[in-house]
Design goal:
With 102 residues, this protein is an alpha+beta fold. The chain has two helices and four strands; from the N terminus they run βαβββα.
């Protein structure tokens, strides 16, 4: 499973990149043989350096083999929370999809 992180107007750091990889791998580990790629898009609605209520967004798109791509999005007060919650949402969507396919 390839994980690609795209930084919109968010400053790219090794710490955020590592956090994305850790969360995606943890949440989607049981699907890793069924997913070819996960794209993660990070953005700050208020612009970099400014804070606001739920202004950090994380969109995750999974590309499962044999299925259409699936995407989720989560907005939060911090990038870490947005990433964590988006990964959890994506895991639930994939679990539902694969359970229905059985």
């Amino acid at each position: 499973m390839i994980i690609q992180v795209n930084y919109g107007d968010v400053e790219k750091t090794d710490a955020i990149d590592q956090y994305v990889h850790e969360r995606v791998n943890k949440e989607l580990a049981h699907f890793s043989n069924r997913i070819t790629r996960v794209e993660v898009h990070l953005r700050d609605d208020n612009g970099s350096g400014k804070s606001g209520l739920k202004d950090k967004r994380c969109t995750m798109e999974a590309r499962p083999a044999g299925h259409q791509p699936m995407a989720v999005e989560h907005a939060a007060d911090s990038l870490h929370n947005a990433i964590t919650d988006a990964a959890g949402k994506l895991s639930r969507v994939l679990r539902t999809t694969f359970d229905k396919a059985k």
